[in-house]
Structure formats: C-alpha cells, structure tokens
Amino acid sequence: MAGKGKQAGVTIVIRKEEGGEHGHHGGAWKVAYADFVTAMMAFFLLMWLLNATSEEQRRGLADYFSPNNVLARANSGSGAPFGGRTPHADGASVSDSGAVRVERGPAPPVLDLEEEEGDTPAPPPPEMAPATPRPDPAAIPDAELREELARREQVAFERAAEDIRAAVRDDPALAELARQLVVEQVPEGLRVQILDAERRPMFTAGSAAPNERARALLQRVVGIAARLPNGLAIAGHTDATPFRGGERSNWELSAERANAVRRLMVEGGIAEARLQSVTGHADRELLLPAEPANPANRRVSITLLRQLPESAAR
C-alpha cells in the first residue's frame, strides 16, 4: 500500500538539549571586576610614586593641589607659578608664601649696668655668642662707668677661674692633672695655662696633636670660656731644648700647637670671631727661666682678654 509506515497529517519535531550550560546572568560582574582592577592599579601606582619620590617632591605635589597654594592667590617671582620656577629647575617646586624668615641682626650690648647685683644673665648659645671687641676707652668718658665695667669684669673673671678649677678638681678622671693647670689673672685678662709635667706630657714629643688628657682639660676650659663675651688670645710655648726635626724648629712647633688648640676651641663652641690672636713663642717666654729644660715650660695658654685695659679703668 502506498504511504505505508507514515501517518498522514502528522509532523514529528525532535529537539536535542545540550547539557552542562546555563543561561547568561547579564554583564554586571564585568563592570565590578573592571572597577576592582582599576582601583588596584591606582593603589599600586600610588605606592610606587611614594617610594620613587623624595620628601621635597612630595611636598611640591601637595602644594600644587592645595587650595591655599600660590596659584590660588597671586603670581610671584617672575609672574609664573611656584615663584618663577619651571619643571626643569633644580629642586622641588615648593611655594614659600607666608613662610617665616629668620635673619640675624646686630647683637645687643653685652654689658648692662642696670642688672641687679648678683644676677647672672643666661649665656647665649655658642653659635649665637656675639663677637665683642674691646671698647675704645675714649668712647667712655665717665670714669665711674669705666670703673663699674672693670669691676663687673673682674667679678666675672674670678667666677670663671673658680669654675674652671672646680670642674677639674671634681672630675675623678682629671683631679690628678690639677697641678698641670694654672689659672690666674694678669694685666691682659684671665689666663689659663696647660703645662707638661715629667712623664705627663700634653702633646706627643715633637707633635702638634694634643693627647686625650689635654683634650679633656681643654673641654672644661672651653665650657667655661663660652659663657663670657671676651676676646681670646692663644699662645704656644716650648722649653729650650732644640727641636730635632729637619727644617722645623720650636717656632713652628709652638705655633702649630697653639693652632691645634684654636681648632679644638672652635669645635667646642667658641665663636671664631672671638679669637684675637694665635701665636707661637718658642722658648722666648719660659715659665721657669732658671730651668729652661723643665717640662713645665712646654705649655699652651688661653687668655680671656679684658674688654677695658686696666689703665683705662682708672
């Protein structure tokens, strides 16, 4: 029969389902992931910039974005931002508008006769200590004023001398060196001498470098001298024993030792401008003329100079 195996008028549709997949849920997760990656990249970029820039550069960047920076107010320098600096200029482009500037002006007078008796003004820091030249006696016509200035200076010298002696005496490491320290008032001012002793030199033989004992004594002297405004004179001396060193002599040796003391005093806080002279006297001013070879003749002296000579005070 025709059409055997077929049903007339019926269409059979076979649908095949592929398993393992589900329908799409939209693209919102892609946007969130992109935002996260962008944030992480910005974070790592920020960390890299912080590590790769200096403090001045970071301050310049902060100043650029600050609402109070120089761009928000007015032009400065040559009329350009950041005081006229360009990206190619050395250093960071930092605004200094409103910054406080401190400039050193003339030092005030050191001696004040209106101070109460016994009051001692606080000493200035060593780096700010004024250089005080000796006043011209002719500029002080009043004899009573000159006498008062001289009296106050005398009291200051006596205090300084006692303080130096006490600083050495009360230090167990230096007490045995007290005999090698001579502190006395002379017409020029207050003189401090550091002497050699038998088997206790302050300098190595033939050398201008002070040893540890000399350095320790000098530190005590510098600490007291820094409190006073007076000028300073440093001198080196030797004994009469000829120097054995080729072309060098006791003249060079004494001058070199005085200059070594000068360097130590400046390093210790004495203002360079206070130094009036640094000299070497060789064996021309022996401490013990009757014993020219005595070790005590080998010495350095530091003199705090009077602001008014003794003759001018009278």
TrEMBL record:
Residues 121-138 have a biased composition (Pro residues). One of its GO terms (cellular component) is plasma membrane. The keyword Hydrolase does not apply. Pfam families: MotB_plug, OmpA. The chain crosses the membrane at residues 31-50. Residues 190-308 form the OmpA-like domain. InterPro entries: Bact_OuterMem_StrucFunc, MotB-like_N_dom, OmpA-like, OmpA-like_sf. It is a single-pass membrane protein. It comes from the Bacteria. PROSITE patterns: OMPA_2 (PS51123). Its main location: membrane. Residues 76-139 are annotated as: Disordered. Keywords: Cell membrane, Membrane, Transmembrane, Transmembrane helix. It is found in: Cell membrane. Belongs to the MotB family. This is Chemotaxis protein MotB.
